[in-house]
Specification:
With about 300 residues, the chain is an alpha+beta fold. Helices cover about 35% and strands about 25% of the residues. It is built from nine helices and 16 strands. The protein has a five-stranded antiparallel beta sheet. The protein has a four-stranded parallel beta sheet with strand order 2-1-6-7, covered by helices on one side. The chain is globular and about 65 Å long. It starts with a strand and ends with a helix.
C-alpha cells in the first residue's frame, strides 16, 4: 500500500514553492502527499478525525509547518491527532517550545547555557523589585509570544511601576522575566533537522532597537557557524525533543559565552529575496526533511 503524508504548510515568503519541492521529493520515494490539511477544519466523528473527505487516522504521518499563532482548536487537534499517528514536530516538543519559560527551564536543566530568568506571580511586587535591583535591566516576555511581539525592556523601578498596570489589565497569571543580556545586537539562527546541521545566518536589530526579529525590524545577513555553535544548537534541539528546530544564539558579553536565547519549532525557509542574497540552504533542508519523514514512516511500519 502506498504511504501517505498529510501536510499543512505556510504559503507566504516562498513557502508554496518549498511545499511543491517537498511533495515532489516525497513522490520520488513513493510517498503520496495530501496538502492544505488545516487542522482548523478538522472534525471528530466517533474515533475518526476528518478534514473534508480525508480520514486523518489513515495517514502515515502528519507534517505541520505553519508559522505564526494557532488557535486553541488547532492546537487541541494537534494534540489529539498525535495520539494516533506520528507528527513532525511531535505535539510534546511543539507544546514545550511554544512556551518560552518551559523552553528555557528545560535548557537550564540540561546544562545548556541560556539566559538567567525568573518566574513569579504577577502580584509579587517584592520579588519584581528585587529582580530589577539585582539585574539593573531585564526583559518581560509573554511566554507564548512570537516575532518579538510584547517584549518589553525594563531598565529601572520607575519603568516597572509604569508597566505593572498594563500587565494587570492583561489578566496575566504570572510574569516571566529574563536578565537583559549585553550583546552586539546580532544573533545566530542555526537550523537543525533530525539532529543534523542545515544552515546558519545572522540577524541584526534595527536602528534604535535591541530585538533582532525580522518582524520587529531586524535584518538578515550572511553568517557562518563554527563547531561550538553547531554543537550548542544540536544540544538545544535534542533537549527540547524537536525534529526540526531553529536555534537562536547570542554572545553574552558579561558572561563571555554563547547562550541559547530561544528554540523555534517552525523555523522559516529562506525567502526568494534571501536566496538572492546568498542564503542557499532550502534544498538541503528539504532533502533532510524528506529523509526524516521517510524514516519515521518506516519506524511506524516496523512497530505495527
Amino acid at each position: 500500500m502506498r504511504r501517505t503524508v498529510g501536510i499543512w504548510m505556510y504559503k507566504n515568503g516562498g513557502g508554496k514553492e518549498v511545499e511543491k519541492k517537498i511533495v515532489s521529493k516525497l513522490k520520488e520515494r513513493d510517498i503520496n502527499a495530501i496538502t492544505d490539511l488545516n487542522l482548523r477544519d478538522a472534525i471528530v466523528i466517533g474515533q475518526n478525525i476528518y478534514i473534508g473527505n480525508v480520514l486523518l487516522n489513515d495517514l502515515d504521518l502528519f507534517f505541520s509547518y505553519n508559522a505564526g499563532e494557532q488557535t486553541q482548536y488547532q492546537v487541541y487537534m494537534y494534540k489529539i491527532l498525535n495520539t494516533l499517528i506520528p507528527m513532525i514536530n511531535s505535539y510534546e516538543a511543539f507544546e514545550l517550545t511554544e512556551d518560552k519559560f518551559q523552553t528555557t527551564f528545560t535548557l537550564k536543566n540540561n546544562a545548556i547555557p541560556t539566559t538567567d530568568f525568573r518566574l513569579c506571580h504577577r502580584d509579587d511586587k517584592k520579588h519584581l523589585k528585587a529582580f530589577i535591583r539585582e539585574w539593573k535591566k531585564m526583559v518581560y516576555k509573554p511566554v507564548d509570544g512570537w516575532g518579538g511581539v510584547g517584549l518589553t525592556k525594563i531598565e529601572n523601578e520607575a519603568t516597572l511601576d509604569v508597566l505593572m498596570p498594563f500587565l494587570n489589565q492583561a489578566d496575566l497569571r504570572f510574569l516571566y522575566l529574563e536578565r537583559f543580556i549585553e550583546y552586539d545586537n546580532t544573533d545566530f539562527r542555526v537550523d537543525i533537522v533530525d539532529g543534523k546541521f542545515i544552515s546558519c545566518y545572522g540577524r541584526k536589530a534595527g536602528d534604535g532597537d535591541w530585538r533582532t526579529n525580522v518582524t520587529s525590524g531586524g535584518t538578515v545577513f550572511l553568517r557562518e557557524a563554527d563547531d561550538k555553535l553547531i554543537d550548542l544548537a544540536i544540544s538545544a534541539t535534542k533537549a527540547t525533543g524537536l525534529d526540526i528546530a531553529g536555534v537562536d544564539i547570542i554572545y553574552d558579553k558579561k558572561k563571555e559565552e554563547y547562550i541559547v536565547l530561544e528554540v523555534n519549532g517552525i523555523p522559516a525557509f529562506a525567502t526568494p529575496e534571501q536566496e538572492k542574497m546568498g542564503l542557499d540552504f532550502n534544498d538541503k533542508k528539504i532533502e533532510k526533511i524528506v529523509e526524516l519523514i521517510d524514516r519515521k514512516i518506516k519506524q511506524k511500519e516496523t512497530n505495527e
